[in-house]
């Protein structure tokens, strides 16, 4: 069987590692290209968009793809919705590997919002806000004109910060709790804004915020496709093996 793995997460990497040693299956991984220098995957990998639904269908048909596992970021909802829909159209099995959401724990000071556009209703003027939301979501915070914004991203910025009251901070994960605490202290952070991406590797910033007593603006996940879904790499492997018999 030939499998298309829509990648870009730690779960996708672990699944690719497991599949690279499995017989009877050929894997092609696909990365969106959002990160300029991603760590290589242990399976053949393409990078960049497909060119819309038509381009993705053409790729699937040209390469004889027999199943699709979508292990993209929980906020990559457009590619997930499109992939689920076109797989249904082509009658190709589709599975979403989606890690569980983070849940608030005792001591957390979370404010749940639908998007960053709700930030002015909760974050006071003069606050120093650390945006761990990625540059694609940055425009949602443009109305925080009376705050100082610090947006972390993996790659060095190609241009100036889009607002006069902000700056970029470049850093490549993973980060320990101690590293996050030290960073928040050094930058004198008052608020943390985070997408509810889930996952243990990036949870350290939330633990650091809890330890420092910082409030967190937690952005809710977008709607996910109405499709078959699992939460773990082991469950995804079981689903794949079930399609090989």
Automatic annotation (TrEMBL):
GO terms for biological process, alphabetical: cobalamin biosynthetic process
PANTHER family noted in UniProt: COBALT-PRECORRIN-6A REDUCTASE
Taxonomic lineage of the native organism: Bacteria, Pseudomonadati, Pseudomonadota, Alphaproteobacteria, Rhodobacterales
Keyword Oxidoreductase: yes
Name of protein: Precorrin-6A reductase
Keyword field: Cobalamin biosynthesis, Oxidoreductase
Pfam family, one: CbiJ
Enzyme class at the top of the EC tree: oxidoreductase
EC number: 1.3.1.54
InterPro entries in alphabetical order: Precorrin-6x_reduct
GO terms, molecular function: precorrin-6A reductase activity
């Amino acid at each position: 069987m030939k499998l298309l793995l829509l990648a870009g997460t730690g779960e996708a990497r672990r699944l690719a590692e497991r599949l690279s040693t499995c017989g009877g299956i050929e894997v092609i991984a696909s990365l969106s290209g959002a990160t300029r220098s991603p760590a290589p995957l242990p399976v053949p990998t393409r990078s960049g968009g497909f060119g819309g639904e038509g381009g993705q269908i053409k790729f699937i048909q040209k390469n004889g793809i027999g199943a699709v596992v979508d292990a993209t970021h929980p906020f990559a909802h457009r590619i997930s919705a499109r992939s689920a829909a076109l797989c249904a159209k082509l009658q190709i099995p589709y599975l979403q590997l989606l890690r569980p959401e983070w849940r608030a724990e005792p001591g957390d000071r979370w404010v749940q919002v639908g998007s960053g556009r709700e930030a002015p209703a909760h974050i006071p003027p003069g606050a120093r806000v650390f945006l761990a939301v990625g540059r694609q979501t940055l425009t949602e915070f443009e109305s925080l004109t009376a705050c100082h914004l610090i947006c972390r991203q993996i790659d060095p910025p190609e241009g100036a910060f889009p607002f006069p009251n902000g700056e970029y901070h470049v850093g490549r994960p993973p980060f320990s709790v101690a590293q996050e605490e030290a960073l928040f202290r050094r930058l004198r952070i008052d608020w943390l804004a985070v997408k509810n991406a889930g996952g243990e590797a990036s949870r350290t910033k939330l633990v650091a915020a809890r330890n420092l007593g910082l409030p967190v603006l937690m952005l809710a996940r977008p709607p996910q496709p109405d499709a078959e879904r699992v939460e773990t790499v082991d469950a995804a492997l079981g689903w794949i093996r079930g399609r090989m018999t």
